[in-house]
Write a structure and sequence with these properties.
Rossmann fold; single chain; eleven-stranded mixed beta sheet; alpha/beta; 29% helix
């Protein structure tokens, strides 16, 4: 899962080893523009190069810096106002040097396997991606136009007609959404029959707002969330070591900071360095039938 390591208002996405991996975004290809539909009316959207807008029925959406902003109301206003910070503060730079509390080795392996099964020309969406680059042909969707984002939209109402999408990746996102049931229903709607979604959700993780953090999932709860799909497989994507490293460091920081913000920040960052070696336990626990009771995160692969 990608981990947010800065403030929500000045956030960037890093991969699970703490490295920025941001796509060098180019103009969306014509075949992707041709698939866009208005999420409100369902009308096909048509791009005008003269006005840099997408129109469908009575509604229009702007295209800024080659990124369609298929949003309405305050969400559109936020996207239009948003600008990437040119410089990060000292606190942010220090945070970026701290090891991630979770090991991403296993998730990267699962993602590579999942994406290797696609065929040329497949429409693959990385939902809630920020700019995390999963390779050519995987299109990044997010609410704000971070560097590397290809399309801005509300994931509760995806701008695609039913059955248009071949595969979806969604890592570390559902816990931050107001209505994950609706989002998963959207995944099912836009996927073609036989299309698949790979989704990662937290189980044993500390609170991490982006901009909010609403829930955690057990294996049974995750299966229930995707019960409308024809088949699904749940397995831990981040093991027990990652769970210990994250929750242990944050728990001790909460206990010994005595309600002082600066002390809490210093303890959190220091303890994450100290607890990082525990992530090696992910390798020892992999494959255990007991791992799901204390793993850091779970992954589901579900077929439409």
């Amino acid at each position: 899962m990608s981990v947010v390591v800065t403030r929500p208002q000045d956030r960037f996405r890093a991969d699970v080893d703490g490295q920025d991996v941001v796509r060098q975004r180019a103009r969306l290809p014509a075949h992707l523009y041709d698939k866009l539909h208005c999420p409100i009316t369902g009308d096909k959207l048509t791009y005008s190069r003269d006005t840099h807008t997408l129109t469908g029925g009575a509604l229009a959406y702007p295209v800024r810096n080659n990124v369609p902003l298929v949003l309405r109301g305050s969400a559109l206003s936020d996207a239009l106002r948003w600008q990437a910070a040119e410089q990060r503060g000292l606190k942010t730079r220090i945070r970026s040097m701290v090891p991630s509390p979770v090991s991403g080795e296993r998730q990267r392996r699962y993602l590579t396997e999942f994406l290797s099964r696609r065929t040329p020309g497949d429409l693959v969406l990385n939902v809630g991606s920020a700019g995390w680059d999963l390779g050519p042909g995987v299109w990044n969707l997010d609410l704000l136009p971070f560097a590397g984002v290809d399309l801005c939209c509300d994931v509760h109402r995806l701008p695609f007609a039913a059955g248009q999408v071949d595969s979806i990746v969604c890592t570390g996102v559902l816990e931050h959404l107001a209505d994950p049931v609706r989002v998963v229903a959207e995944f099912r709607r836009v996927l073609r029959p036989g299309g698949a979604v790979l989704c990662t959700v937290p189980f044993m993780q500390a609170y991490h707002a982006d901009p909010e953090d609403y829930r955690r999932y057990t294996a049974a709860g995750l299966r229930q969330l995707f019960e409308a799909f024809s088949s699904s497989e749940v397995r831990p994507s981040h093991g027990v070591g990652s769970g210990l490293a994250w929750v242990g460091a944050d728990a001790l920081a909460a206990a010994f900071s005595f309600d002082h913000n600066r002390l809490h920040t210093a303890l959190t960052l220091s303890l994450r360095w100290l607890f990082a070696p525990l992530r090696i336990l992910d390798r020892l626990s992999e494959g255990s039938r007991f791992e799901h009771v204390a793993c850091s995160a779970l992954m589901i692969e579900a077929v439409r």
